[in-house]
Amino acid sequence: xxxxxxxxxxxxxxxxxxxxxxNVAFNHNLPQDDFARKYFDSRFGEGHWQYTYNGREAIxxxxxxxxxxxxxxxxxLTTSENFYISSCVTLEIDEVCRWNREITPETKxxxxxxxxxxxxxxxxxxxxxxxxxxxxxxxxxxSQDPSGRVxxxxxxxxxxxxxxxxxQLGGMVVSNKKKQTVKSERLNETEANYIEKVMSYYxxxxxxxxxxxxxxxxYAVQKFKAxxxxxxxxxxxxxxxxxxxxxxxxxxxxxxxxxxxxxxxGIQNSVFYGEDAFFIPNHQNLSHTEIDYFYEVLQDYIxxxxx
Length: 307
Prior knowledge:
This protein is an alpha/beta fold. Helix content is about 35%, strand content about 15%. Helix 4 links the parallel strand 2 (about 75-80) and strand 3. The longest helix is centred in the last third of the chain and has 20 residues, at about 205-225. The protein is globular, with a radius of gyration of 20 Å.
């Protein structure tokens, strides 16, 4: 039996990132390890990457590498071409210049959001514009396109570790053209050491992590198909989604009301605004029983929603 609509002080907590409260003590007690540094040197090139406090700082540092004026324009492109874009992106751009959603003669930099773990489909065409490119890989740490160049097309690529690993902070900015010059202003030595030891531990289990995520994704997709929902994006062997995005097919009459209901039952989620879709947690630290809980809560909402 699952308790639906519990007392507000007795809510579970299921986040879209895999971090849980037990990770506070677990991560604190991990030994210092430099495996992550060797991993990133091998993947990105020594001197071409650095840790940041989070993904937002990585975005800020990449943008700061260009001599942009307030009147300049950054064009944001996303995998789905939906107007949805996180404020984590737009707020950082707003600090520097203007932004829009379509390449124009005014565009100075293209900012490509590889959305929810699904790579932008035509990076080669963007390269042909000759414009500088920043790749937002914050939700695409593991995913690749057929050419294996996601994160390497642009001048810069930015990453956010908590999207895939159970850590409370940490990001990365990668420079593909030259070695790093802009340095993190927010990250101190203690925090950098924390990121390195935590990432070292979890990267050593990369294959296991990916296997558990895939198993949970497949299990959840089949569960929610029984309610009529389907995958918004098509997955393949190169894709590792950051969340489970479901097409609604008008089953839920009010997605904003569902968002509140799921949050009130301890399930972090959001509407994919601009489309009839929503997303919920799906990561390696969930059990099948916890996914069953998501199913039961969603089923209960559908059963009692106003027709």
